[in-house]
Amino acid sequence: MQEHQKRKAAKDFFDEVEKHRAENLGLGEFFRRSPQHHLGTPVFLAPTTVHYSVDKAMKLVGLGENNLVTIDVDENLHLDMEDLKKQFHTLNSNKRPVIGVIGVLGTTEFGVVDPIDQIVEFRKELRKENQDFYLHVDAAWGGYLAAIFRKKDGTWSRDSSQIRQGGMFGDFPSEKQFQAYYAVREADSVTVDPHKLGYLPYGSGAFVARNRETARFMRQDAPYVWGSDSGKRSQGTKEKLTDAVLKSTHGQYVIEGSRPGANSAGVYVTHKLLPLHREGFGTIVGRTLKVTKVFSEKIQALKEYLEKEKIARVCVPVKPETNILCYVANPYTNKDIDMLNKFTELVFEDLTNDPTRPLQTFNFMVSSTTLPLKILPLQSQNRVLTELGLARKRGTAHSDLSLTVLRHTLMNPWLGEVIDEQYFYLEEYLKYMKSLFKQTIRKSKLKQKKTREQEENRE
Ligand SMILES: Cc1ncc(COP(=O)(O)O)c(C=O)c1O
Questions:
Q1: What pLDDT digit, counting tens, does each position of 99-136 carry?
Q2: Ligand 1 center to 108 CA (angstroms)
Q3: Which residues line ligand 1 (CB under 6 A)?
């Protein structure tokens, strides 16, 4: 086909699609037009660990938050392929169209990498039977770690053991993680946040589509702002697309119309200076993985100390895969999960932002999150409770319990260094936490005693 014929065919295709899009017709009209198909409400599928912004997106596009169907995860919080397949086929036989599947490349709370390669395999199988789904990868957190796989010439190593050699990146990547990252190229779209592991200013989010033409479907024209033909130029050749990109602004493609381009400029300049390959950005993010490995060893040492001294029991509920580590310590004699959560909140008070306290007085700052036990398989729920010495709660199923955990996002590549031959942050953290746990146990015992006395006095 000649170039101009290809261009015309592409234009005709897009014009035809435009006529039938739910975004233009509204979902009501969309379904009214095809009653013969008796279609149920369409859904997206995503693991239970998916970021809340996906719920928000479901609301925004009018698909409805309830139509984000969640898929179970395994003991280390990876999307469970068996459940994905089961749910896909069930929805299909109930005539509920599965528009897309979302896999997460580094979950927000635990940094876990979903098996993107297996989702891609599943889609290949479906395609043989003329079935399909859109695949979106949420790499907001973990996307930047791809820099360690990319060589300077832009190609990828295919041998994950080579990357692991010498332990430069701690235990990263396992073969499974490597395959997941390698398969991202098969996704239809990916989100990446330069303001996370790209260390760039807040608000630098990116949506990357496999086919640049996808952006056409998100475009909103407004002649007085963007010129009458800026977006329309993206209908044809590469040259014209570039032209359109240069003439357009983000506002045409994202939710906020009035949006500055400063963040994008920052991302552009940064990656010109520090390209996204293993000798550029990879050296920075790679070090954070090594730091996480050393930090895991420190947490193991903390656990051994607190348990030997019968001060507390420690559990790392999810094995760290990238550079986020969460753990929890339960005072040795406590068996009650609510008491444990209160205790963790007390510990957390010392480690979190407090506007009344000068920043300089903080030794360490961490975040916290809650792990609803129900998202774990039953066996893992039992493991976590046993490791923490928690008793089953009468009248409450495990699945209704949530555990507050201390969350450590290890983004600082220098955390693993010894400063002035004596100050090693991770070792200092270990010392600090040993004493913080002891102090907090004392504080909470005093608090309990006071409450008991007050109650007795009232009686
Ligand atoms: C995994 C993941 N996805 C998506 C997002 C994007 O969130 P927002 O809508 O706040 O930019 C985040 C941000 O924390 C995230 O961690």
A1: 999 999 999 999 999 999 999 999 999 999 999 999 99
A2: 7
A3: 51, 53, 104, 107-108, 138, 140-141, 193, 205
